[in-house]
Amino acid sequence: MLLSMKGISKSFANVTVLTEAALEVGAGEIMALIGQNGAGKSTLIKILTGAYLRDTGTAQFEGREVEFRSTAESQTAGIATIHQEINLAPNRSVAENIYLAREPTRFGLVDRKKMRSDAVAMLGRFNVDIDVDRPLGDFGAATRQMVAIARGVSQNARLIIMDEPTSSLDEREVAVLFETIRKLKTDGVAAIFISHRLDELYKICDRVTIMRDGSTIAVSNMKDISKIELVRTMLGKELTAFTASDRTREGSSTETLLEVKNLRAGPRVSNVSLSVRKGEIAGLAGLLGSGRTETARLIYAADHFNDGVVLLDGNPARFAEPADAIGAGIGFVSEDRKVEGIVPEMSVRENMTLAILPRLQKSGIVDHTAQQQIVDKYIKALGIKCASPEQAIRELSGGNQQKVLLARWLCMNPRLLIVDEPTRGIDVGAKAEILKLLRALADDGLSVLMISSELEELIAAADRVTVLSDGYSVAQLAADELSEHRLISAMAHQDEAAA
After folding, report:
1. Domain segments of the chain: what residues?
2. Which H or E element spans position 58?
3. Looking at residue 132, what DSSP letter applies?
4. Residue 150 and residue 97: Cα distance in Å, rounded?
5. Which of 305, 321, 332 is closest to 416 using CA atoms?
6. Is the pLDDT of residue 424 over 80?
7. I need a surface site. Which of 4, 177, 334, 408 has the fewest CB within 10 A?
């Protein structure tokens, strides 16, 4: 083994993020490292590269015990990392980027002639023929990716970590990158390949390490594990307090409120179509990186699409900004509650009425009586547990914070509510409450587009589910078609999913 990490554990402020994790990579091996959000991939890599120190466990690199205390130490030892967002200097030349902080010198001065010739030779190994004197920013994502790899190889790297290296590349550029990786492999250079695009793993990787909940769950040769088994192992089983029998609706409306046709935007949303009927919960499923959140943000105008159409009540609705979407009756509860949802230092009252303040103003002054009536109404209706409306929202449990965010949009009287991972980070009991609340809202006529990574939630709550894979909508499943097997099959993009 070139790299062997065993029994790696790590905690932050009494929160355990890694438990007895392991990772082994052979010389010249391409190892896939996969797992959902929170699986522990990033923490394990940061421990390997010296950004974090491990609490327990051992690590060996090239046969010797190591514990890097900085990223510089790991780089010196022969480990290079290429991040998803390429961390180079776009205003400096290609040659300068390859040898940044390691420029060849002559008589105490930078030897630019040698640096240039070395850069040309290094890129030539990967069939990249460009003017190395031009600024790196002049080139596209694929070329910048190659320069980042060339920089790592020029440091005599024995192991290169690639974090979502194809996220901003088109199909032709991915093919060039894979050819480069294969050349590195023949030179004995190993790679850890982190990607959520399953097809890519089977094309380029020798083995796969699967992580879940901070632990290494399985290691397999790529040829020995099917896509369905890969997805099933990665997702695992989640304990939930609800089942499909909780859904007691007699049938949802056939009238369509929102329709999305052939939506495209950048590399994450390639061709997505879905619809949401009036008074239903439409689920949106897919693995991390499938384009779920990106699609929701496009509908809400937080980002903008390049092609396709969004229809509201059958009419085109290309909003310029989120304010336009809000004005049309669309609310959006983000998956990142702490960063994009709550304002921690503000009270429950202030957080709940943040979006409706313009409507509560008279001559520029907030009508506090009307504000308090709204707050009292939703605290009671949603069962929000707080000492008082003036309590800081950061002091509430995750489930009650999420209820406050739901109340923020409900007091706007939306027609469509987009909820992205509505139960993430809250306990099982609170999850059931949130889902029953969404169900009750849909029964009262609110349309809900619910994004969830938990299959049991979708089976329990959704009337229909659209499944995304690598930026494409690959299956539409009705409530009576929903099952764990069919959802996993669709996520793995197996033909039988839509049969």
Report:
1. 3-235, 244-498
2. strand 56-61
3. T
4. 10
5. 332
6. no
7. 4
Residue 220: partners with Cβ closer than 8 Å, 6 or more residues away: 207, 208, 210
**Amino acid symbol at 441:** L
User: Residue 429 corresponds to which amino acid?
Assistant: G
Band of residue 245 on the pLDDT scale cut at 50, 70, 90:
very low
Q: Under CATH, domain 3-235 is a member of which superfamily?
A: P-loop containing nucleotide triphosphate hydrolases (3.40.50.300)
pLDDT tier, 374 (very low <50, low <70, confident <90, very high otherwise):
very high
Tens digit of each residue's pLDDT (9 = 90 or more) over 264-310: 998 789 999 999 999 999 999 998 788 999 999 999 999 999 999 99
pLDDT of residue 239: 36
| Of 350, 301, 352, 307, nearest in space to 327 by CA | 301
Residues 6 or more apart whose CB falls under 8 angstroms from that of 137 comprise 90, 91
Q: What is the pLDDT of residue 252?
A: 55
Integer Rg of the chain from CA: 25
CB 52, CB 46: distance < 8 Å: yes
Task: Give the homologous superfamily in CATH for domain 244-498.
Answer: P-loop containing nucleotide triphosphate hydrolases (3.40.50.300)
Which helix (DSSP H) or strand (DSSP E) does residue 123 occupy? helix 112-124
Say if residue 240 is exposed, middle or buried (CB neighbours under 10 Å; 0-12, 13-18, 19+): middle
pLDDT at 30: 97
Q: Which of 51, 82, 49, 45 is nearest to 66 (CA)?
A: 49
- Work out whether strand 64-65 and strand 56-61 pair parallel, antiparallel, or are unpaired: antiparallel
Helices (H), 223-310: 227-235, 292-299
Domains 3-235 and 244-498 share a fold: yes
pLDDT digits (tens, 9 = 90+) for 43-91: 999 999 999 999 999 999 999 999 999 998 998 999 998 876 667 899 9
Report d(CA 155, CA 153) in Å as an integer.
5
Rounded Cα–Cα distance for residues 443 and 492 (Å): 32
